[in-house]
C-alpha cells in the first residue's frame, strides 16, 4: 500500500515481516512471487528469517510446477505488478506449481539485490525453467538472463535462453530495455565463465539432487548443441548485433552503452598479443610494444548506426555509459568517426570529475587501444584526476591505466609513477602472474625502475605464486629485468628455469621466443647483485639455465616467422653469448644455426640505415672539433656490426658514445638513492659525480642507471678491443652551463685522457 519509492519505515517492515514469516508456508505460488517482487521493487532486503521462509515456499512450489508447462488461469485478483491475460487451456487441471511468469519473477526478485538463491532452489529453478523455456515471453527471458547476470552464476540454462530468444521469441518482439538486460545478463555470465575456466559440459553434476525435478534433468531437456564451450553461439550473436544496429535509435543512452558492452564482451576476439620491437641505430635500446596481433583499429559497419545514435544522445550519457561504450568500441576494434570523437571528448572532459576508478580505467584504455588523437588531451587530464584516488583502484584497473600510458608513449612523470608504486605495493601478495608481468613491463617501457622495496615484493610474489607463468609472462618479465639493468635474484631465475624446463615451444609466440632469448642473454652478461663468489656462481648458473631453456626453443622458429626486429634481437643475443662464454656458445649454437644468416642480415640492415644524429651528438662533435680531435662520425666497426657515434682517429682504439635520456632508467623516488653516483657499468668512460645529480628528464631527483642494452653495446665494443668513452646527457647539461664552452672541453678531454687518447 506504499507509494512508489517511499520507505514506509522500520516499524512497518518489522510488523510486515513477522506476518509474512507466519504465513509464508501457506502462500500460493503467485503470492510467493508477488511478495518477492514487492520487496525487490522497493529495494528492501528481507531479513534472513523471512528470506529463508520465502525460499522454502518457492522450493515447494518448484517441485510441483506443471510438468506440462501450461499457463494456468488467473487466480483471484491481488495487488501485483501487471500480468499477461493468460487463459486456461481446455480441460487443463489445476496445478499448484509456479506459472512461467511467476517462476521467472520469483527468481528475478530473489537476485534483485545481488543475493544468490540457495543451491536447491537454484537447481529446481533451472530444471523447471528448462521445461517451460519454450513458453517464456521476451520479458521473462530477459528477467532470467539478468537474474543470472546479477549473481554471475554460470549455468547451461543461459545458452538455451539465448537460443530461445533468437530462434523462437524473436528479438524484434523485445523492447530495447529487454534486449539490453538480456544481453547484459548473458555477457556477465560469459565473463565469469571465462574467468573461472568453466565449460558447460562440466556442470551436469553441479547439483546432485536425486529428485527427478532436479538440475540433472535440465541437460536432457535442452536442445542439442547448447552444452558447448560458447555461451552464445556466433550465429545467435550476429542476430543480436543486427537487431541492435537496426534499432539503436530506440535505445536510451544507458541501454545503448550496456548493449554495446555486452556485445563486445560476448564477441570472441583473439587474445593473442605479439611483441613488436624497435631497435635504435646502435642496437643499444630495444623498445617493446605489446599489441593485438594483426589488428589495426578500423570501421565496423554494424557499429556505425550505434555510433550515430550515441552522438545524438551524448549529453544524456552517464560516466559509466561513456566507459562502457568506448570500451566496447575498443574491444570490437571500431574507430569512431571525427564527430563522435569530438563530441565524446568534450563530454568526457566536462564530466571527468564524476568518473570512478573503473570508469577512468576503461576510458583511458579505450582511448589508448583505439589510438584516438584525443588521447593526448584526455590522458593528462585523467592523470590529474586519478593521482589522489589510486587507493580506489583494483590491480587490473591500475594496470589498464599503465598500459594505456605505454601504448600512447605518454610519460606520466616520476611523481605519478611513485604513486602507482605505492598503490600497488599492498596488493602485491595477491597479484596473478600476468599482473606482476604487466607492472614490470610497463615500468620498463616507461624506463622507470621500481624501488628496492617494491622490487623485493614483486620478486617474492614471482617465487611464491602458485600459478604458472605463461611463456609471454616469463618473456616480458625477463625483458623488464634486462632492459632496466636489474640483476634478478637467484630465486627468480630458478623459478623461471623450473617453468621453462616444463614449457613447450608452442606455448610461445615467435616474437616472444626472440625477445626471451635476447633478454636472457642481456641478463647473463650483466653484473651480479652480490660480490660473494659463491652467490655469483649460483646466479651465473641460474642465468645460464634460463638461457639454455630459451635457446632450445629457437629450433622451432623459421626465419620467416619472426620479424626483422626479432631476428636482429636474436643476433645481438648470439653476440652476447659468444662474448660471455665461447664454451656455452659452442654448446648452444646448433639451436639457432638455421636462423644465424637471416638474423645477421637483419642486424646489418638495421645498422645500414641512415643514422639519426641528435642535437646532443652534434654538440659533442663540435666540442671534439674545438679540441682538435680527429674522428669519424657514425662509422661502422667490426665489419659493420656496430656503429658508434664517433670513432676517434689515432693509435688508441677509442669510440665515443653519446647517451641521451632514453639510454637510462630512473627510480621514481628521490629519497632512496639521492646523492649516489651514476653507476659506471659501461666498461669504459666516466660516471657522474654526486654534485652532478640534479633534476633529470623526469623532473625528479634520482640516480640514473644505464639500460641493459646500452651496457651490452659497450661490453661488446670493449670485448673487440675498443676503449669506450660514454658522454652522459646529464654531465653534458651540467657542463653546458658554462657559456664559454670551457667546462665542456675540460669534461670531454678528461674522458678522452682516461681512455688513453694522446
Tell me about this structure.
This protein is mainly alpha-helical and 758 residues long. Helix content is 55%, strand content 5%. It has 31 helices and eight strands. It has helices at 10-23, 29-41, 48-63, 100-111, 119-132, 138-151, 157-169, 176-196, 216-221, 234-246, 253-266, 304-312, 319-331, 338-351, 357-369, 375-386, 395-407, 414-424, 433-445, 452-464, 471-484, 490-501, 510-525, 533-552, 564-580, 582-607, 615-626, 670-673, 708-719, 729-735, 742-754; strands at 273-279, 286-292, 631-633, 646-648, 654-659, 664-666, 704-706, 723-728. The strands form three sheets. Strands 3-4-5-8 form a four-stranded mixed β-sheet, sandwiched between helices. A two-stranded antiparallel sheet has the order 1-2. A two-stranded antiparallel sheet has the order 6-7. A hairpin with a 5-residue loop joins strand 4 and strand 5 (654-659). Helix 2 packs antiparallel against helix 3 and helix 12 packs across helix 14 (338-351). The longest helix is centred in the C-terminal third of the chain and has 26 residues, at 582-607. The protein is elongated and about 105 Å long. Mean pLDDT is 81; it is low at 66-95, 200-228, 270-279, 290-296 and 670-701.
Q: Low-confidence segments, ≥5 residues, pLDDT <50? A: 66-95, 200-228, 270-279, 290-296, 670-701
The tally of helices reads 31
What is the number of strand segments?
8
Q: What is the strand content?
A: 5-15%
Shape, please? elongated
Overall residue-averaged pLDDT value: 81
> What share of residues is helical?
40-55%
- Largest sheet entry: 4 strands, mixed
Assembly form of the protein? single chain
Radius of gyration: 33 Å
Strand order of the largest sheet: 3-4-5-8
From the helix content, strand content and strand pairing, which structural class follows? mainly alpha
Distance between the termini: 101 Å
Amino acid at each position: 500500500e506504499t507509494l512508489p519509492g517511499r520507505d514506509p519505515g522500520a516499524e512497518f517492515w518489522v510488523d510486515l515481516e513477522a506476518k509474512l514469516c507466519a504465513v509464508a508456508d501457506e502462500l500460493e505460488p503467485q503470492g510467493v512471487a508477488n511478495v518477492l517482487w514487492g520487496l525487490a521493487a522497493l529495494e528492501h532486503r528481507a531479513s534472513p528469517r523471512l528470506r529463508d521462509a520465502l525460499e522454502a515456499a518457492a522450493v515447494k512450489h518448484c517441485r510441483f510446477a506443471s510438468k506440462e508447462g501450461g499457463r494456468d488461469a488467473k487466480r483471484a485478483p491481488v495487488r501485483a505488478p501487471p500480468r499477461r491475460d493468460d487463459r486456461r487451456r481446455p480441460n487443463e487441471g489445476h496445478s499448484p506449481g509456479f506459472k512461467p511468469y511467476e517462476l521467472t519473477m520469483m527468481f528475478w526478485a530473489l537476485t534483485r539485490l545481488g543475493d544468490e538463491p540457495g543451491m536447491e532452489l537454484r537447481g529446481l529453478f533451472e530444471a523447471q525453467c528448462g521445461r517451460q523455456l519454450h513458453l517464456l515471453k521476451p520479458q521473462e527471458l530477459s528477467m532470467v538472463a539478468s537474474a543470472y547476470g546479477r549473481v554471475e552464476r554460470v549455468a547451461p540454462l543461459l545458452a538455451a535462453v539465448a537460443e530461445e530468444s533468437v530462434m523462437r521469441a524473436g528479438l524484434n518482439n523485445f523492447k530495447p530495455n529487454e534486449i539490453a538486460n538480456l544481453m547484459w545478463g548473458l555477457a556477465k555470465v560469459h565473463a565469469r565463465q571465462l574467468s573461472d575456466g568453466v565449460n558447460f559440459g562440466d556442470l551436469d553434476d553441479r547439483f546432485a539432487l536425486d529428485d527427478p525435478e532436479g538440475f540433472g534433468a535440465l541437460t536432457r531437456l535442452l536442445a542439442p548443441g547448447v552444452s558447448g564451450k560458447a555461451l552464445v553461439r556466433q550465429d545467435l550473436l550476429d542476430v543480436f548485433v543486427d537487431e541492435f544496429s537496426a534499432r539503436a535509435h530506440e535505445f536510451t543512452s544507458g541501454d545503448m552503452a550496456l548493449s554495446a558492452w555486452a556485445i563486445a564482451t560476448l564477441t570472441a576476439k583473439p587474445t593473442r598479443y605479439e611483441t613488436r620491437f624497435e631497435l635504435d641505430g646502435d642496437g643499444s635500446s630495444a623498445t617493446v610494444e605489446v599489441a593485438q596481433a594483426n589488428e589495426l583499429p578500423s570501421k565496423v559497419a554494424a557499429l556505425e548506426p550505434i555510433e550515430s545514435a550515441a552522438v545524438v544522445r551524448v549529453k544524456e550519457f552517464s560516466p559509466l555509459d561513456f566507459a562502457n561504450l568506448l570500451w566496447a568500441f575498443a574491444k570490437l576494434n571500431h574507430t569512431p568517426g571525427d564527430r563522435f570523437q569530438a563530441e565524446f571528448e568534450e563530454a568526457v572532459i566536462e564530466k571527468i570529475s564524476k568518473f570512478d576508478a573503473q570508469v577512468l580505467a576503461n576510458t583511458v584504455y579505450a582511448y589508448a587501444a583505439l589510438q584516438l588523437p584525443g588521447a593526448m588531451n584526455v590522458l593528462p587530464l585523467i592523470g590529474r584526476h586519478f593521482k589522489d584516488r589510486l587507493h580506489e583502484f583494483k590491480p587490473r584497473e591500475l594496470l589498464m591505466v599503465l598500459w594505456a600510458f605505454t601504448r600512447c608513449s605518454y610519460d606520466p612523470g616520476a611523481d605519478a609513477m611513485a604513486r602507482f608504486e605505492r598503490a600497488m605495493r599492498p596488493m602485491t601478495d595477491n597479484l596473478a602472474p600476468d599482473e606482476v608481468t604487466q607492472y614490470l613491463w610497463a615500468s620498463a617501457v616507461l624506463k622507470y625502475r621500481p624501488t628496492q622495496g617494491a622490487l623485493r615484493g614483486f620478486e617474492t610474489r614471482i617465487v611464491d605464486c602458485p600459478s604458472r607463468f605463461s611463456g609471454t609472462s616469463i618473456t616480458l618479465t625477463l625483458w623488464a629485468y634486462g632492459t632496466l639493468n636489474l640483476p634478478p635474484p637467484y630465486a627468480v631465475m630458478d623459478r623461471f628455469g623450473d617453468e621453462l624446463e616444463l614449457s613447450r615451444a608452442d606455448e610461445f609466440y615467435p616474437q616472444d621466443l626472440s625477445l626471451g632469448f635476447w633478454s636472457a642473454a642481456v641478463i647473463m652478461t650483466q653484473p651480479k647483485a652480490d660480490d660473494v663468489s659463491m652467490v655469483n656462481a649460483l646466479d651465473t648458473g641460474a642465468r645460464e639455465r634460463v638461457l639454455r631453456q630459451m635457446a632450445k626453443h629457437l629450433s622451432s622458429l623459421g626465419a620467416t616467422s619472426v620479424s626483422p626486429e626479432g631476428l636482429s634481437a636474436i643476433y645481438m643475443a648470439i653476440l652476447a653469448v659468444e662474448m660471455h662464454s665461447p664454451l656455452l656458445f659452442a654448446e648452444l649454437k646448433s639451436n639457432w644455426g638455421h636462423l644465424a644468416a637471416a638474423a645477421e642480415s637483419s642486424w646489418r640492415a638495421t645498422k645500414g640505415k641512415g643514422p639519426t644524429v641528435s642535437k646532443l651528438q652534434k654538440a659533442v662533435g663540435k666540442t671534439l672539433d674545438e679540441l682538435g680531435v680527429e674522428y669519424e662520425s657514425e662509422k661502422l666497426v667490426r665489419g659493420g656490426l656496430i656503429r658508434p657515434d664517433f670513432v676517434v682517429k689515432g693509435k688508441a682504439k677509442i669510440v665515443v658514445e653519446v647517451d641521451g635520456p632514453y639510454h637510462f632508467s630512473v627510480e621514481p623516488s628521490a629519497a632512496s638513492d639521492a646523492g649516489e653516483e651514476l653507476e659506471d657499468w659501461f666498461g669504459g668512460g666516466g660516471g657522474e659525480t654526486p654534485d652532478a645529480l640534479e633534476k633529470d628528464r623526469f623532473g625528479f631527483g634520482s640516480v640514473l642507471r644505464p639500460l641493459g642494452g646500452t651496457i651490452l653495446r659497450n661490453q661488446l665494443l670493449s670485448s673487440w678491443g675498443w676503449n669506450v668513452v660514454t658522454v652522459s646527457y646529464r654531465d653534458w647539461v651540467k657542463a653546458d652551463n658554462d657559456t664559454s664552452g670551457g667546462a665542456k672541453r675540460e669534461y670531454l678531454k678528461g674522458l678522452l685522457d682516461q681512455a688513453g687518447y694522446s
